[in-house]
Specification:
Nucleotidyltransferase, domain 5; 12% strand; alpha/beta; single chain; 3 domains; five-stranded mixed sheet; 310 residues; globular
């Protein structure tokens, strides 16, 4: 209601007033817009990067806070796009798999890269439904996991050395060279700290290959695609708005509110810039993942006879 009042005050002046019935009609219109949005076709949306995350809200009587699953992406043109919102009774494999299958049923093609936190159900669903896509595990979430296993007095040092693993210079080209260099640094980190903080090192090495997937992509995109933390800030805004309510009136109201906040926020989201080199690299990755050149092992190999020298 405060958002509606502020919008009308901007348009009609601070002396304007609105009735509860007017607010009710506006909110009903929002719900109708959401219903149309969540069923729209995605067949004309080509996404290179897909971000997935969830946040918990109280929306059912007698039930604890339950997750709202969200997907947004960056298109092949470098533009951000808000893709989907759906409730789940848990962040389970079944819930996430159903959400992803729904996006695909509406026409969304598999992305090049999926970025997410380390939730087991989410990772399993991505590998089940988007198995041909590459997967990036959020570096910020992994940093938090590692620091949780280190005493407070050492956290600043460990944090700096962790991020130094991924701080590659411009002289390291994206691809195998970048992955190799980051892996070399990770081994140095592990060798230095394994004896003192073995749990932190084990945490770094767990699923490590998916911490460096983003290094195969254009360097100018790295800061944008190596974590999923961006959507969390918008979720924080949503939680702030519902904090005074305690429990939302129901699932429909919850989803409408989450969608309205995210939809408005998405207009200010940043995408990525493209260069000729980045376009070429992404095209090569697309061919490698989705259109590989078949190898015919049955094809007979022939060689020209060698003519002896005169």
């Amino acid at each position: 209601m405060r958002d509606v009042e502020a919008c009308l005050a901007d348009a009609l002046g601070p002396e304007s007033t609105i009735s509860k019935s007017t607010v009710s009609r506006i909110c009903e219109a929002i719900k109708e817009e959401f219903d149309a949005w969540k069923t729209r076709s995605l067949s004309d949306v080509e996404v290179d990067y897909l971000f997935l995350d969830g946040s918990h809200f109280k929306m059912h009587p007698g039930a604890p806070a339950e997750p709202v699953l969200v997907a947004w992406g960056i298109t092949s043109a470098g533009k951000p796009v808000f893709l989907g919102v759906e409730p789940g009774n848990a962040e389970s494999t079944d819930a996430w798999a159903g959400f992803l299958r729904g996006l695909k049923a509406r026409g969304l093609a598999d992305p090049l890269l999926v970025i997410s936190d380390g939730a087991a159900g989410l990772i399993a669903a991505v590998e089940l439904v988007l198995g041909d896509s590459l997967r990036q595990r959020c570096l910020i979430h992994r940093a938090r996991n590692i620091l949780a296993k280190v005493p407070a007095h050492a956290q600043a040092t460990i944090k700096a050395e962790y991020w130094a693993i991924f701080a590659l210079g411009d002289d390291v080209a994206p691809g195998d060279a970048a992955v190799t260099e980051a892996t070399r640094r990770a081994r140095v980190f592990a060798a230095r700290w394994r004896k003192l903080y073995p749990a932190a090192v084990d945490c770094l090495e767990d699923d490590y290959s998916h911490l460096v997937t983003y290094l195969r992509f254009p360097a100018e995109h790295h800061a944008r695609i190596r974590h999923s933390n961006f959507i969390e800030r918008t979720f924080g805004e949503t939680r702030r708005r519902v904090k005074v309510i305690g429990r939302l009136p129901g699932e429909r109201s919850c989803l409408s509110l989450v969608w309205a906040v995210l939809d408005r926020a998405s207009r200010g989201w940043r995408g990525v810039e493209h260069t000729i080199a980045s376009i070429r690299l992404l095209a090569e990755l697309h061919r490698e993942l989705f259109d590989p050149v078949p190898i015919d092992h049955d094809e007979e190999v022939t060689t020209e006879p060698v003519t002896p020298a005169a």
